User: Which sequence fits this backbone?
C-alpha cells in the first residue's frame, strides 16, 4: 500500500511545477484550463436543457468517425478528423432519434444503444488497425494530456502563442465564449422558457442544433487531451459546482471558469504527487471542489440545509422526506 | 392468472413467437459466421477450424470464456429487462462506470486479480455511486441526468487515477488490470466462473421468486404502493442485483461497455413482446447469443477485445428486431401504414360510387368510370385504376366501362356513408359544432368507426334518418338487406 502512494513532497508538488518546470506543467495546466473552460461553458447550457447525457453520447460516438477519418486521410491533420467526428456525432443523433421515434424504445435506452454501438465499433477499428493508427484504446478513454506535444510553437506576428494543440483548444474556448456573449439573450430565454422564446421569434430547432454542433466541436477538440469519458466530467463539473453557489447565469459562467482554472492547477499538482493520469487527476480535483461546494454552499449546501432544518424543527415538524 | 401488459389474441401470439424464432435463427445464422469470416481472414486462420475448437471445449480457457459469456449474457439480459421497462438505462450506464475505482481497490487488497476481493470492491463502489446520485438529486437543484453524468465521470476518473498508479508499481504492469476497461473473456479463470455462476443463479432465483412484485412495481407503481408492496426495497434490491451483474460482466465486457449488455438485448426483446416474462426470457437469450458470439470472435482474432465485439453482436440483434419485429418493427409498421392507406383509398372510391348512385336516386344499375372520375374530380385513368383495385378486392365488377357493386361492396359503401353522416350529425347535435365544420373530421373517422360505436351513436341520436346536410342516413336494413343478412348482423336488426 505504501508504495502505491508516493511520499508527499510539498516542494515537488506545489512549488516546482510552477517555477523550474513551468515550461512543461504550465502548458499542461493551460491546456487543462482551455478544455475545462470550453466544456464548462457549453455544459452549462446542456444542464439547463437537461441534455447533460447528450455529452456522454456524443463523446463516445465520435470515436469511429475519428478512426475512419484517420484511415481514409492517412494523417492526423485536423480537417478530416473534424469532418469524421462531426459525421459520427450526427449519425449518433440520427440513430437515437430514429430508434425512439420509430419504435417504443424510450430515449434513454436509445441513447445507451446508439453510443455503445458506435463506441464499440470505434474500439474494434482502433484495435484492428492498431498498426496504422496513432491512437491506443486506453488513450481513447482518458486521453493523454501530459503527452500533448509542446512543439511546434505557434507564433502570430512575432508573439509566441503556445503549442499548437493549446492554441487550437484556446481558440475553441474563446469561440464558445464569444458565441455565448453574442447569443446570450437567445440562449437564456430558450433555456428557461421555450414558450416565450418561440413567441419572441427565436427558432428553437436552430438553437438546439447549433448547440449540438458546438458540443461536437468542443468534444472533438478535447478528445485528444481528456478522452471520451473524462470529457463528460469537464462538461458537467464546472457548471454543477457553480450552480451550487449561485442562481444567476452570468455568475454561473464566471464561477465555472474559476472552477476550470482551479481544477486544472490542482489537478496538475495531484497528478504529480500521485504520479497518475493528469487528466483524471484534474477531474478528481474538480470533483473535490464540487464536494466542497455541495457541503459548504451558504444557500443550498448540506451544512446550511442541516442548520436550517434544525432551526425549523424547533418551530414545526418537518415534512417527511420523499424517497427516490 | 398473470396480469397482462396488454391483452393479446391467441393467433397473434403464435405469429409473434414464429417471428422471434425467425429473428433468432437469422441472427445466429448471419451474425457469427459472416463477421467471423472477415476477421478470420484478417488473422489468416480458417474460421471453421476455430469454430470447432471453440464449440467443442477443447481447452480450459475456451471452456471458461464460453461459460462466462453465457452467465454474463443471462444475468445482464435478465436484469436489463427491468432497466428498460423502468426507464433506468442511464442508471445502468452510471453504475457500470462507477465500479472502476472499486475494481482497482479490490485489486490492491492483495495485489492480485482475486475475484472475490474485486467483486466486493466493485459492488461497494457501484452502490456508493448510485447512492450518491440519489443524494445529489435529493439535496441539490441538479437534475438527475447531471447527477448521473457527474458521478459516472468522477468515479471513472478516480478509477483511472488508481489504475494508472497501479500500473506504475513493479508488479502492476503485468497485472492485467487494464483488461477491465475493454474486457478479455480469455482472461477468465475457474474462480471467476464459479462467482459468475453463483451470481447468475441468485439473480435468477430472486427474479423468479419476486416476479409479481417486480412486475407490479415496474408497470404500475401506484397500484404497487396501494397493495402495500415495499417499492423502495424492491428498487434497492434490484440495484443491488444490477451492481452484481455489472461486476461479474466486467472482466469479459469491460467497464466501458457493460451498460450496453444490460440495455441492448433487453431493448431488442422489448420490440418483440408485450409480456414481461417473455421479455425477460428473450432478453436473456439475446444476451447469451451476443455474449457467446463476442467471446467467439475475440477467440478467433485474439488481439480484439471481447467487450466491443459482444456489444456489436447485441446491437446486431437489436437492428434485426428493429427491422423485422412482427408488430413493432419498422417493416411491419410501414406495411400496416401502406395497407391501411390502400384500404382507405378503396373505401373512398366506394363512397364516391355510392354518391353517384344516390344522385341517380338509386335507379341506375351501375356507375360508369366517367361518372366516377367526374365525381372524384380525377382523370379517367385514375378512375380506371381505382375501379380495378375494387375489382381485385371483390367489391365491384367491371364490365366495359361500367362499375357494378358486388353485395359486399354495396354493403361497405353504405356503411362508410352511414358512418360519415352519423358522425356529422353527432358532432352537430351533441358536440355543438357548426354543420359546415364537421365534414373534414367525418372524412377521417368514417374508416375507423366500429359497429359497437355505430350502435351507440344511433341510439344516442334516436335513430335519426337525416344528416345535418339533409341527406338520408342508410339504415341497417338498407345496408344489409333482408337477403344479405348474415348471422353476425342479425342482432343489429333490433335497432
Assistant:
Amino acid at each position: 500500500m505504501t508504495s502505491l502512494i508516493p511520499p508527499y513532497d510539498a516542494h515537488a508538488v506545489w512549488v516546482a511545477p510552477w517555477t523550474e518546470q513551468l515550461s512543461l506543467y504550465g502548458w499542461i495546466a493551460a491546456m487543462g484550463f482551455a478544455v475545462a473552460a470550453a466544456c464548462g461553458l457549453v455544459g452549462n447550457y446542456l444542464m439547463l436543457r437537461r441534455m447533460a447525457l447528450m455529452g456522454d453520447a456524443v463523446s463516445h460516438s465520435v470515436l469511429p468517425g475519428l478512426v475512419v477519418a484517420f484511415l481514409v486521410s492517412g494523417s492526423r491533420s485536423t480537417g478530416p478528423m473534424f469532418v469524421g467526428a462531426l459525421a459520427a456525432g450526427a449519425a449518433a443523433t440520427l440513430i437515437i432519434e430514429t430508434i425512439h421515434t420509430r419504435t417504443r424504445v424510450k430515449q434513454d435506452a436509445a441513447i445507451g444503444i446508439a453510443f455503445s454501438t458506435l463506441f464499440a465499433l470505434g474500439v474494434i477499428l482502433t484495435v484492428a488497425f492498431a498498426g496504422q493508427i496513432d491512437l491506443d484504446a486506453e488513450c481513447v478513454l482518458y486521453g493523454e494530456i501530459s503527452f500533448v506535444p509542446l512543439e511546434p510553437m505557434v507564433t502570430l506576428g512575432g508573439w509566441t502563442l503556445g503549442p499548437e494543440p493549446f492554441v487550437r483548444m484556446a481558440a475553441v474556448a474563446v469561440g464558445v465564449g464569444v458565441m455565448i456573449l453574442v447569443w446570450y439573450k437567445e440562449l437564456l430565454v430558450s433555456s428557461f422558457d421555450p414558450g416565450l422564446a418561440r413567441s419572441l421569434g427565436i427558432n428553437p430547432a436552430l438553437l438546439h442544433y447549433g448547440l449540438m454542433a458546438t458540443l461536437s466541436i468542443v468534444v472533438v477538440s478535447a478528445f485528444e487531451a481528456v478522452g471520451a469519458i473524462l470529457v463528460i466530467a469537464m462538461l458537467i463539473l464546472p457548471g454543477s459546482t457553480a450552480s451550487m453557489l449561485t442562481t444567476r447565469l452570468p455568475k454561473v459562467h464566471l464561477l465555472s471558469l474559476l472552477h476550470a482554472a482551479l481544477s486544472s492547477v490542482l489537478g496538475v499538482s495531484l497528478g504529480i504527487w500521485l504520479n497518475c493520469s493528469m487528466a483524471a487527476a484534474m477531474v478528481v480535483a474538480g470533483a473535490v471542489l464540487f464536494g466542497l461546494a455541495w457541503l459548504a454552499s451558504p444557500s443550498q449546501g448540506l451544512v446550511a440545509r442541516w442548520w436550517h432544518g434544525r432551526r425549523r424543527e424547533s418551530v414545526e415538524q418537518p415534512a417527511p422526506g420523499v424517497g427516490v | 392468472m398473470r396480469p397482462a401488459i396488454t391483452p393479446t389474441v391467441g393467433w397473434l401470439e403464435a405469429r409473434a413467437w414464429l417471428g422471434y424464432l425467425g429473428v433468432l435463427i437469422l441472427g445466429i445464422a448471419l451474425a457469427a459466421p459472416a463477421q467471423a469470416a472477415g476477421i478470420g481472414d484478417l488473422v489468416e486462420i480458417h474460421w471453421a477450424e476455430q469454430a470447432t475448437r471453440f464449440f467443442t471445449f477443447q481447452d480450459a480457457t475456451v471452456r471458461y470464456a464460453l461459460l462466462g459469456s453465457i452467465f454474463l449474457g443471462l444475468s445482464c439480459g435478465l436484469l436489463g429487462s427491468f432497466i428498460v421497462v423502468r426507464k433506468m438505462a442511464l442508471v445502468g450506464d452510471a453504475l457500470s462506470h462507477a465500479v472502476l475505482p472499486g475494481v482497482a481497490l479490490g485489486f490492491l487488497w492483495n495485489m492480485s486479480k482475486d475475484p472475490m476481493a474485486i467483486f466486493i470492491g466493485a459492488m461497494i463502489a457501484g452502490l456508493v455511486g448510485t447512492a450518491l446520485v440519489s443524494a445529489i438529486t435529493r439535496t441539490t437543484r441538479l437534475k438527475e441526468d447531471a447527477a448521473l453524468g457527474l458521478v459516472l465521470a468522477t468515479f471513472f476518473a478516480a478509477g483511472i487515477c488508481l489504475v494508472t498508479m497501479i500500473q506504475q508499481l513493479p508488479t502492476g504492469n503485468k497485472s492485467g488490470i487494464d483488461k477491465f476497461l475493454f474486457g478479455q473473456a480469455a482472461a477468465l479463470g475457474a474462480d471467476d466462473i464459479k462467482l459468475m455462476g453463483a451470481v447468475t443463479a441468485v439473480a435468477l432465483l430472486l427474479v423468479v421468486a419476486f416476479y409479481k412484485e417486480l412486475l407490479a412495481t415496474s408497470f404500475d407503481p401506484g397500484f404497487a404502493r396501494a397493495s402495500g408492496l415495499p417499492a423502495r426495497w424492491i428498487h434497492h434490491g434490484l440495484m443491488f442485483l444490477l451492481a452484481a451483474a455489472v461486476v461479474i460482466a466486467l472482466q469479459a465486457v469491460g467497464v466501458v461497455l457493460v451498460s450496453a449488455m444490460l440495455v441492448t438485448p433487453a431493448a431488442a426483446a422489448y420490440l418483440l413482446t408485450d409480456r414481461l416474462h417473455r421479455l425477460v426470457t428473450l432478453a436473456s437469450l439475446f444476451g447469451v447469443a451476443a455474449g457467446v458470439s463476442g467471446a467467439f470472435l475475440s477467440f478467433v482474432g485474439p488481439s480484439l477485445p471481447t467487450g466491443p465485439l459482444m456489444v456489436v453482436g447485441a446491437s446486431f440483434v437489436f437492428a434485426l428486431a428493429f427491422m423485422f419485429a412482427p408488430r413493432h418493427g419498422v417493416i411491419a409498421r410501414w406495411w400496416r401504414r401502406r395497407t391501411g392507406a390502400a384500404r382507405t383509398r378503396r373505401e373512398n372510391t366506394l363512397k364516391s360510387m355510392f354518391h353517384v348512385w344516390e344522385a341517380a336516386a338509386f335507379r341506375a344499375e351501375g356507375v360508369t368510370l366517367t361518372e366516377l372520375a367526374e365525381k372524384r374530380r380525377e382523370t379517367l385513368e385514375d378512375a380506371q385504376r381505382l375501379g380495378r383495385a375494387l375489382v381485385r378486392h371483390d367489391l365491384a365488377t367491371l364490365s366495359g366501362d361500367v362499375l357494378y357493386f358486388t353485395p359486399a361492396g354495396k354493403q361497405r359503401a353504405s356503411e362508410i356513408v352511414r358512418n360519415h353522416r352519423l358522425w356529422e350529425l353527432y358532432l352537430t347535435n351533441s358536440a355543438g359544432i357548426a354543420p359546415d365544420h364537421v365534414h373534414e373530421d367525418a372524412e377521417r373517422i368514417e374508416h375507423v368507426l366500429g359497429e359497437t360505436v355505430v350502435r351507440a351513436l344511433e341510439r344516442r341520436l334516436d335513430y335519426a334518418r337525416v344528416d345535418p346536410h339533409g341527406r338520408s342516413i342508410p339504415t341497417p336494413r338498407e345496408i344489409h338487406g333482408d337477403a344479405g343478412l348474415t348471422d353476425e348482423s342479425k342482432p343489429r336488426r333490433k335497432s
Notes: The CA atoms of residues 245 and 299 of chain A lie 7 Å apart.
